[in-house]
Amino acid sequence: MEFLKRLGIKEKNFGASTGTKWLETADQGELKIHSPATGEYIASVYQASEADYEKVVQTAHDAFLKWRMIPAPKRGEIVRQIGNRLREFKQDLGMLVSYEMGKSLQEGLGEVQEMIDICDFAVGQSRQLYGFTMQSERPLHRMYDQYQPLGVVCTISAFNFPVAVWSWNAMLAAVCGDTNIWKPSSKVPLSAIASQNIIQQVLIDNDVPEGVFALIVGRGATIGEQILNDKRIPLISVTGSTRVGRHAGEVIAKRFGKAILELGGNNAVILTPDADLKITIPAVVFGAVGTAGQRCTSTRRLIIHETIYDKVKATLLKAYKSLKIGNPLDQKNHVGPLIDKGAVKEFTTALERVKKEGGKVIYGGEVLEGEEYKSGSYVVPALVEAENHYEIVQEETFAPILYLMKYNGDIHNAIELQNGVVQGLSSSIFTNNLREAEAFLSPEGSDCGIANVNIGTSGAEIGGAFGGEKETGGGRESGSDSWKAYMRRQTNTINYGTKLPFAQGIKFDI
Ligand code: UN1
Fold first, then answer.
1. Is 262 a catalytic residue?
2. Selecting from 3.30.450.20, 2.60.260.20, 3.40.630.30, 3.40.605.10, what CATH number does the domain 2-263+473-490 have?
3. DSSP states of 437-456
4. Element containing residue 402 per DSSP (H, E)
5. Is the whole model's pTM more than 0.85, yes or no?
6. pLDDT at residue 1 greater than cutoff 90
7. Where are the domains of the chain?
């Protein structure tokens, strides 16, 4: 396929790079990557060895010592050029993301657009990275805080966003003066290798120190554990399940490392009697079936006022019936495959469990068969009537299942249901009622990291801080002031007088 060639994907690819140099290990096993869209074999990736890991970390560390002394706007200039390269390759990389991961081409292109956007954002940020100036209580003293580069950062990304989440972390890290090691999901390493190939030319053209943008594809049980335990890596950003994140968080905390954890979500949309259904229905359907329900931000629960429940249910049923399921590269289709057969199993198991608990599957749930679906990863998105307290509803199932539930009375009852789960990533309300919207956004409103009004739970812009509360992990990445996590904060007090007054008026004469 031509686009694979243009992205530098060969039949067999190495899994570790220090920036422009690929490490040529070929004896640690090969990942054979098939497209969940068609079942076709795409290419293979050699997994990195522990020795490769050692080399990558050392190179990233050596690079940090140089990179941190390059003025931030000059580092921003590299990121600006990376953004331009990504613009050139948007179509090809978007296609690979869609082909390797299974999300629709529109969403694949959207993911690359997120990469471009975060590059632009990081370039602007590179001329800011502001600290405060404070007023000292002592005469002839000056006090301020400044942000210093932190060191080697590692981004462990998940299969569902094969490239964007890396760029949120790596581009900010780069302007902050850090170097970045990327450990992508072993389910989608080709998109990572292609991204590395795309940025490589910028690194060569600008003589960027080897190790500023590194990549390592390897086993979680070996390389992953090495990363978590490695004191040379002061910050690790982990996107994944709550189970994976809990373990990572514990290991990193033990060595006083910093962690950004983007873990599970169990995102709800509240529909009040004042919701404008014209915009609500497409938002809910996109939120629930986009990326085949495999976004952290996917809509999983719909909390509907009892007075509009039947109407919403009927409209949703109609919308679900019109969904076209099939090859995500074909733009007429709305829903692509799940990532693999394991995910299909989780989907069907969840539906079995909800039925046992008293839920009612009112649409979908089938695993599709036939030539178009021969990868075995296609399912019909499910609509299920359920209750919030069911065990399965309390869990995040990474698949297109939307649980419908009723609330009665006022908005506070809906908010209680929305907050009544252990996760806290994204939430939204559809209403034209100012009081309801403001209650939802108030201190007694949504307890999530993201709370939207008249917008779905997924599809956040990069300009906001992205992340969640409770078991979602508490980290923030991407926009707003998330950059601060990638820097070391330092308070400076300078005495430019001839006396030594102590703070708090303490007398100490010698
Ligand atoms: C994720 O699912 O891990 O808000 C990230 C969104 C995307 C990012 C999702 N911008 O849906």
1. yes
2. 3.40.605.10
3. HHHHHSTTS--SSEEEESS-
4. strand 401-407
5. yes
6. no
7. 2-263+473-490, 267-463
Residue nearest to atom 3 of ligand 1 (CA): 296
Q: Nearest 5°: CA angle at 198, between 194 and 200?
A: 115
pLDDT band at 274 (very low <50, low <70, confident <90, very high): very high
Residue 203: pLDDT over 90:
yes
Ligand 1 and 160: CB distance under 6 A: yes
pLDDT tens sequence across 207-217 = 999 999 999 99
Ligand 1, residues 111, 296, 448: which to mutate, most atoms within 8 A of Cβ? Answer: 296
Ligand 1 contact via 159 beta carbon (within 6 Å):
no
- Atom of ligand 1 minimally distant from the CA of 265: 2
pLDDT of 175 higher than 90: yes
Whether 398 lines ligand 1, by a CB cut-off of 6 Å, is no
Between CA 121 and CA 44 the distance in angstroms is: 34
Angle 285-420-310 from CA coordinates, rounded to 5°? 40
Evaluate whether 2-263+473-490 and 267-463 have a shared fold. no
* Domain 267-463, second-level architecture: 3-Layer(aba) Sandwich (3.40)
Does 103 contact ligand 1 (Cβ within 6 A)?
A: no
